[in-house]
Amino acid sequence: MRIFSGIQPTGSKHLGNYIGAIRQYVEGQDRGDPAIYCIVDLHALTVPWDPATLRESLYDTTAILLAAGLDPERCILFRQSDVREHTELTWYLSALTAHGDLNRMTQFKDKSAKQRELVSAGLFFYPVLMAADVLAYKAQEVPVGDDQRQHVELMREIARRFNERFGEILDVPEYRIPEVGARIMDLQEPANKMSTTGGSEAGTVLVLDDPKTLTRKIKSAVTDSGTEVRRGDGKEGISNLIQILAVARGTSEEEIEREFEGSGYGDFKAAVAEGVVDFLSPVRERYEALRPDEAALEEALTAGAGKAREIASGTLAEVRSAIGVGPT
Ligand code: ATP
Ligand code: MG
């Protein structure tokens, strides 16, 4: 099973990224042959960025992934811009992508509405680059959070269209979305997903937040005027905290509801805070040990890029030959 997934080096990664994606990456290392994980700095250029901050965040994200348990001996971990095949394949695939399909992507609609100065063509093209990321490795499985379902469906369509036209060259990948925790919501705006670039600061729980900050954010999470710790309509805030605690403790949402039957929201939030602190603290501690050694991080990424390029360049040679580009 070839596994591929990407994560943006924008800002600090949050609990949604950790639960929806990073947790699955770690688990995928043992199933993946290979498991390929990419820090997608090119995707980060689709919204305004600062060059120096982007470089820093790239190392932050690398160190978070290693701290979470990715092992460069058991997976391929690399930086997207190191492997030029991604951008080349993006162009070839763009010729098979319907403009109308890109126009109906909800991520494009949401993110373009939030841009104040420039809605870049890059933001519109994001799903094509993402299709190229995955298809360049002929990956069969793509671990992602629920918000990326639509993009994976689109890349499946692009791969099918390519194969119909040019022969069975690309694999049509499946997404892998976790059963619990596929969509962690912003603690202050529980109708919106927790997000690196779009969410509220107080409602975004960062993987690297210290225990005091974690506790403050969770205790001030928006709930509802009711009293029952259970999931349901109009209980988006409480439902979100239930799913978070279930994942943090490695149990089910039903089990959490049973345990907190009759408890008040205050006691419940205190338990969620404690659960999240226990869940994230080991990652933060390992991060603090790993992050200062940028040379070691760079070395791991460079080695990963070498392995990635070997696979991607093979696919690109097949693609070029099939579509009639370059010498015979
Ligand atoms: P942005 O909001 O700027 O797109 P992001 O928070 O979505 O940033 P990404 O790097 O784009 O971060 O996403 C990395 C992975 O995390 C993706 O697989 C995505 O589906 C997953 N993910 C992002 N937000 C959540 C969330 N709130 N709950 C669960 N998974 C999430
Ligand atoms: Mg995203």
Strand order of the largest sheet: 1-2-3
The first-to-last residue Cα distance is: 32 Å
Radius of gyration: 20 Å
Portion of residues in beta strands equals 5-15%
User: What coarse outline follows from CA principal-axis ratios?
Assistant: globular
Number of helices: 12
Average pLDDT score: 97
Q: List low-confidence stretches.
A: none
Task: Report the count of strand segments.
Answer: 5
- Return the string of H and E elements: EHEHEHHHHEHEHHHHH
Q: What's the story with the biggest beta sheet?
A: 3 strands, parallel
Going by helix content, strand content and strand pairing, the class is mainly alpha
The percent of residues in helical segments reads 40-55%
Can you walk through the features of this model?
The protein is mainly alpha-helical. Helices cover 54% and strands 6% of the residues. It is built from 12 helices and 5 strands. Strands 1-2-3 form a 3-stranded parallel beta sheet, with helices on both faces. Helix 2 (51-68) links the parallel strand 2 and strand 3 (76-79). It is globular and about 70 Å long. It starts with a strand and ends in a 5-residue tail after the last helix. The model has no long low-confidence stretch (mean pLDDT 97). The structure holds adenosine-5'-triphosphate and magnesium ion. Residues 7-8, 10, 16-17, 19-21, 144-145, 147-148, 182-184, 193-198 line the site of adenosine-5'-triphosphate.
